[in-house]
């Protein structure tokens, strides 16, 4: 047997994990402190008992692989796992895939007073004094957006302003939300939909409109869905990416560049942070699809992406032209 886990994430100080633990008396509370990770030191508590771990390689993936995964595999109990603020629950769930550990729910705590500024900003974790290791170049936006987007339920530290609420409605429309003051842990977990992720993830070819978010603008927040059956010109797409890094909360999508006709590329942004990866061969018809949540004029995004699509002449001569392709070499790995 292995653990059944309720995972609690968030970039703010909170006691939500303790509340969930107290609501389930037979559960085990596990938390990690990664502030010393760059020096190879990790502090871990299990029901209040501290263990100091020294790792030869101070990185998040090492912590997951060498400590957290074996710990959870050895616990035949319900576990409330309080993640360190720098951790993205999707990466943790990926590390647990293929094990016997079952994720019952992912709960993310959001502070509406700071979340939107963090989600649209360009600060790196290192600039906030939170870098997991020297090579950790993630932005705060990538972490806070990923934490909120992957959650099965959200706890807000206070009532959100209308703009933040509109963004969360579009980023994660299916997740039930409660305000921390008056949190009912049992009711919150009971409200998680039957078809919630619960730690699951797809291969990059699933629906980009997960949870059917509202597509009509509200409080200056819009959802742009860009589709097309023509490939992008690689350099023009590279320039268009700048539009996706200013006033944009989240971009997710599959793209096709004319210089890589058989490869599906994954493009993802949060605030000023960008990831580009390779999904491998297209499983069917090649089609651009990008979904953007933005607080800027959506017409600017559509125009920039339209301009990046190849012309008739470029498409006709694609086999003969020697395209400069920054996406052939440059990308940021999704691992942490």
Primary descriptors:
single chain, 336 residues, 8-stranded mixed beta sheet, 5-stranded antiparallel beta sheet, 10 helices, 25% helix, 25% strand
Give your account of this protein's structure.
With 336 residues, the chain is α/β, with parallel strands linked by helices. It is 25% helix and 25% strand. It is built from ten helices and 13 strands. The strands form two sheets. It has an eight-stranded mixed β-sheet with strand order 4-3-2-5-1-6-7-8, sandwiched between helices. The protein starts with a strand and ends in a 20-residue tail after the last helix.
Structural class estimated from helices and strands: alpha/beta
- Distance from N terminus to C terminus (CA atoms, Å) equals 28 Å
Largest sheet composition: 8 strands, mixed
Q: How would the global form be characterised? A: globular
- How many individual helices? 10
Unreliable stretches covering 5 or more consecutive residues: 331-336
Rg, Å, rounded = 21 Å
């Amino acid at each position: 047997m292995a653990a059944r886990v309720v995972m609690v994430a968030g970039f703010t100080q909170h006691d939500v994990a303790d509340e969930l633990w107290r609501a389930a008396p037979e559960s085990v509370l596990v938390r990690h402190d990664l502030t010393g990770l760059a020096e190879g030191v990790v502090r871990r508590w299990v029901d209040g008992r501290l263990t100091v771990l020294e790792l030869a390689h101070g990185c998040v993936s090492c912590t997951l692989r060498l400590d957290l995964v074996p710990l959870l595999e050895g616990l035949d109990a319900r576990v409330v796992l309080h993640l360190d603020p720098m951790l993205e629950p999707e990466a943790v769930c990926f590390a647990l895939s293929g094990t016997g550990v079952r994720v019952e729910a992912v709960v993310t705590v959001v502070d509406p007073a700071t979340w939107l500024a963090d989600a649209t900003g360009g600060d790196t974790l290192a600039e906030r004094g939170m870098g997991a290791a020297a090579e950790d170049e993630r932005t705060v936006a990538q972490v806070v957006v990923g934490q909120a987007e992957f959650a099965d339920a959200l706890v807000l530290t206070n009532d959100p302003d209308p703009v933040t609420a509109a963004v969360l409605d579009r980023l994660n429309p299916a997740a039930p939300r409660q305000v921390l003051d008056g949190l009912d842990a049992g009711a919150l977990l009971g409200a998680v939909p039957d078809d919630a992720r619960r730690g699951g993830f797809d291969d990059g070819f699933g629906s980009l409109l997960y949870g059917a978010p509202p597509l009509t603008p509200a409080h200056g927040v819009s959802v742009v869905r860009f589709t097309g059956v023509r490939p992008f010109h690689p350099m023009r797409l590279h320039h268009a990416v700048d539009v996706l890094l200013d006033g944009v909360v989240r971009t997710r999508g599959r793209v096709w560049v004319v210089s890589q006709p058989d490869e599906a590329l994954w493009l993802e942004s949060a605030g000023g942070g960008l990831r580009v990866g390779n999904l491998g061969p297209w499983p069917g018809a090649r089609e651009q699809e990008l979904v953007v949540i933005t607080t800027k004029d959506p017409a600017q995004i559509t125009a920039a992406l339209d301009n990046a699509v190849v012309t008739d002449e470029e498409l006709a001569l694609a086999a003969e032209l020697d395209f400069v392709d920054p996406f052939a070499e440059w990308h940021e790995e999704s691992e942490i």
